[in-house]
Q: What sequence folds into this?
């Protein structure tokens, strides 16, 4: 059995084994991720516009509009999800009552739903045959349908964002130091002041971390918009149509890279603030 | 190699520089006899654990260093092949195995049959006093029990050298004292060449045939517990092993001249400035009438089985004296100090 | 009194949000077994839609399980040893590798799929087989397995266990088998649950990579939402829920158990 050279400090004879153990992962990651991503970047610059394709996301009106509407939608969704999750999370973490576990489960189980299913949920709620349309036509005489508009899309994005955010928020609420709130109260702060000056600032890191995940996920969400087939062209839909309908592969590639960079940047930003690893999924 | 007493160990010029540039060990040369228990003693960062790991084969010495077991060069032999028994500071028991499986693991690797293993495991558990715990999981054991399992596991394979890395440090003080005695008895029964690493001086004195005092990556003194205690070769060793009064004085005509009088020095002491060490228990409290050296009692601490006094005015700094608990003495009293010349130890000038 | 009102208000709010999330899911499950959705449950309960779903989409369901199972196998064989190697090596290289394999989580599935198509679209045999889908799923789920195992290894002082097994004579493969893997089991299980659940529910990647002959369940769902009547789409969704919810429950229970065990230790 070949022994190690003396050049390294640590002698445990497993460097060879460790390298062998990493090899399959290295091969798989290179073949099916690094190589394709590199190709994507190259193809993005290989179209008629060359490298200009990467700037098109900012200058071409259609793409810019799409970028703006996607960013706005993702941002508004994130803020709304954070607000909702904070109210619900604070309540759930600080009160114990029968059925609490069930309630928490209900709020988190959509985590595994693909975007298409979320879209379907929205259709069932607010589509032409949806629950809300049914109720409003009975109560108000007029059927309200909004699944296929921006409100529907927003609800859909909210649907998959809330579960993602609420778990992190609840974990952070659990870690809050009650002594700080008590101290504020002894100094005369009322409930709203305690929230504003003690609780929300303490939750700040959790807001940023989970907000970044929600934002990145919303930016990259495809299935929901696909199912709801709205007139709103979010960036993933634009990429999809460029690739499949217009066969504008270079543009699709360039836009994908741009989208990937934005998503990655927001997660890296959150990670730099929280020091841990965060990830979007879906 | 399977003679019960293990191998003779020799380290030649073993130095260690880590890849990040830290120099953990200066070139160390050491010989350990078969069956001897040697304690590496020193403050944290002195290199004692690094030296232990080089003997184990977990680290390699810098080029030029050699490790020999019974005159066989094992420097390039990885730990799996060195047949050492190692007890880690955290015990490193395998959580996925029962106590019996842990102890028998080394034997299983060596291909011993299940029945033979069972017999040996039973013997070892008898020896370490943990019969009955065979099927327990590791997280169900107390600290003392884990220590014994770790020991049994290390000894099971008839190691050439037994290596113990601060095995008692993880336990609380009372348990440590109790286990120290048991460990001593066990090591003597086994009689294997043992290297024991600790920063606790009392442990070192109790367990070692020989003590190797280390500091800043080098050996500063080697010797039996008695010789290291009574004849430290430096101020560092004097103060690390037990309490010490270190006095600076000028020697004239065989006497050290001190503020409180004079102290007779050992025969052959050269005239001139000197540094002397006195152990607190070697100083007797006598009547100040006619005493060579006098001072004033500043504080009296009644410990129970003895008293600890601080005496000012006798030397350039306060002297600590251990006195019998029956002695009637109080603060402010003027007393004399009785010192036998043979208990005075001269130290070289030590740049701290 | 005001406090009680506030708490009641918060409870109501939380209930509304929970209702928002769960009511459509329940509706869809009901619709899947109702004879006629418009007339509601009064029109009768039936399994005809579920049977129709099976007739139309049985293949997609089977394929989803196939891909999920294969993804699990690959992530186990490739990811567990890699997690061990990354944990014991430490250092900058390991952190870089960890970064790289976590990147697919940050990048939208659409982009990854596009990238895969650009490189492998020309290999028509591969591109047309379910293995192409598997490749995408493996890239996407690998970080979950690796990180789950690494998390557990980090808590058990893997280096010292490795060293002590080595001191007893065990070589690297033996140590991996006898000591490392058994003690990493909670992480392996958690990772396995994640991989299977995520693979079953994956859409963004799979939609781009699929062909009419390599559809998975979520892809079939998208088809049915566009072209089938509501009852059939609902029944199909019901099948999906039945597959995925037990897995989610298992994941939640597992997380609770391991958190509880860790806090007790």
A:
């Amino acid at each position: 059995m070949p022994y190690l050279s003396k050049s390294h400090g640590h002698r445990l004879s497993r460097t060879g084994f460790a390298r062998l153990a990493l090899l399959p992962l290295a091969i798989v990651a290179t073949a099916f991720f690094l190589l394709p991503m590199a190709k994507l970047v190259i193809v993005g610059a290989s179209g008629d516009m060359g490298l200009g394709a990467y700037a098109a996301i900012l200058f071409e009106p259609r793409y810019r509009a799409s970028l703006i509407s996607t960013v706005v939608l993702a941002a508004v969704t994130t803020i709304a999800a954070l607000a909702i999750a904070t109210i619900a999370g604070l309540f759930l973490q600080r009160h114990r009552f029968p059925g609490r576990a069930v309630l928490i489960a209900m709020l988190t189980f959509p985590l595994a739903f693909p975007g298409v299913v979320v879209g379907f949920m929205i259709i069932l709620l607010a589509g032409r045959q949806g629950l809300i349309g049914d109720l409003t036509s009975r109560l108000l005489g007029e059927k309200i349908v909004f699944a296929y508009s921006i409100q529907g899309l927003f609800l859909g994005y909210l649907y998959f964002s809330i579960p993602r955010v609420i778990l992190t928020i609840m974990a952070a609420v659990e870690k809050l130091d009650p002594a700080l709130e008590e101290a504020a109260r002894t100094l005369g702060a009322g409930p709203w002041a305690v929230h504003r000056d003690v609780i929300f600032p303490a939750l700040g890191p959790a807001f940023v971390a989970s907000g970044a995940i929600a934002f990145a996920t919303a930016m990259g969400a495809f299935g929901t918009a696909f199912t709801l087939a709205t007139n709103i062209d979010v960036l993933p839909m634009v990429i999809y149509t460029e690739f499949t309908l217009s066969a504008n592969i270079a543009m699709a590639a360039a836009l994908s890279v741009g989208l990937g960079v934005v998503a990655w940047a927001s997660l890296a930003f959150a990670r730099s603030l929280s020091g841990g690893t965060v990830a979007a999924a879906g | 190699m399977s003679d019960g007493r293990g191998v003779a160990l020799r380290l030649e010029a073993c130095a260690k520089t880590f890849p990040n540039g830290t120099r953990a060990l200066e070139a160390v040369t050491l010989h350990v006899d078969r069956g001897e228990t040697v304690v590496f003693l020193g403050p944290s960062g002195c290199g004692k654990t690094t030296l232990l790991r080089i003997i184990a084969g977990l680290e390699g010495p810098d080029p030029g260093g050699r490790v020999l077991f019974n005159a066989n060069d094992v420097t390039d032999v990885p730990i799996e092949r060195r047949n050492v028994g190692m007890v880690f500071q955290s015990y490193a028991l395998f959580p996925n195995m029962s106590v019996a499986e842990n102890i028998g693991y080394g034997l299983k690797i060596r291909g011993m049959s299940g029945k033979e293993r069972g017999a040996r495991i039973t013997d070892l558990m008898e020896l370490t006093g943990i019969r009955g715990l065979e099927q327990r999981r590791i997280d169900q054991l107390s600290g003392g029990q884990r220590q014994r399992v770790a020991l049994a596991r290390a000894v099971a394979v008839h190691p050439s050298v037994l290596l113990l890395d601060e095995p008692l440090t993880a336990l609380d003080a009372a348990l440590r004292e109790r286990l120290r005695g048991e460990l001593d008895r066990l090591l003597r029964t086994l009689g294997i060449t043992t290297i024991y690493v600790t920063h606790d001086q009392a442990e070192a004195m109790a367990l070692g045939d020989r003590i190797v005092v280390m500091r800043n990556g080098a050996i500063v003194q080697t010797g039996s517990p008695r010789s290291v205690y009574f004849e430290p070769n430096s101020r560092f060793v004097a103060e690390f092993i037990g309490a010490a009064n270190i006095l600076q004085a000028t020697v004239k005509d065989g006497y050290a001249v001190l503020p409180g009088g004079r102290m007779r020095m050992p025969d052959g002491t050269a005239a001139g400035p000197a540094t002397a060490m006195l152990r607190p228990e070697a100083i007797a409290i006598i009547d100040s009438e006619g005493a060579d050296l006098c001072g004033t009692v500043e504080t009296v601490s009644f410990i129970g089985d003895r008293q600890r006094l601080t005496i000012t005015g006798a030397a350039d700094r306060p002297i600590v004296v251990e006195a019998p608990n029956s002695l009637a003495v109080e603060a402010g009293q003027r007393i004399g100090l009785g010192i036998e010349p043979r208990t005075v130890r001269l130290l070289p000038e030590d740049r701290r | 009194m005001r406090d009680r009102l506030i708490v009641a208000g918060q409870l109501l709010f939380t209930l509304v949000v929970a209702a928002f999330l769960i009511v459509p899911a329940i509706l869809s499950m009901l619709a899947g077994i109702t004879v006629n959705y418009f007339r509601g449950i009064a029109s009768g309960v039936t399994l005809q839609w579920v049977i129709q779903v099976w007739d139309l989409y049985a293949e997609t369901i089977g394929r989803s399980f196939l891909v999920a199972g294969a993804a699990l196998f690959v992530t186990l064989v490739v990811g567990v040893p890699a997690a061990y190697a990354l944990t014991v090596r430490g250092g900058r290289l390991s952190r870089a590798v960890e970064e790289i394999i976590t990147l697919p989580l940050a990048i939208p599935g659409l982009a990854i799929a596009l990238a895969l198509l650009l490189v492998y679209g020309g290999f028509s045999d591969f591109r047309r087989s379910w293995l192409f889908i598997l490749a995408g799923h493996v890239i996407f789920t690998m970080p979950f397995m690796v990180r789950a195992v690494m998390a557990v290894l980090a808590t058990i002082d893997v280096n010292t266990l490795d060293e002590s097994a080595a001191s007893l004579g065990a070589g690297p493969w033996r140590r991996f088998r006898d000591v490392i893997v058994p003690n990493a089991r909670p992480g392996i299980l958690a990772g396995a649950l994640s991989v299977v659940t995520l693979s079953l529910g994956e859409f963004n990647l799979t939609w781009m990579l699929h062909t009419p002959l390599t559809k998975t369940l979520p892809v079939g769902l998208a088809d049915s939402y566009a072209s089938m009547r509501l009852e059939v789409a609902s029944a199909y969704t019901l099948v999906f829920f039945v597959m995925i919810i037990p897995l989610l429950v298992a994941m939640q229970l597992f997380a609770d158990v391991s958190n509880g065990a860790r806090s007790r230790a």
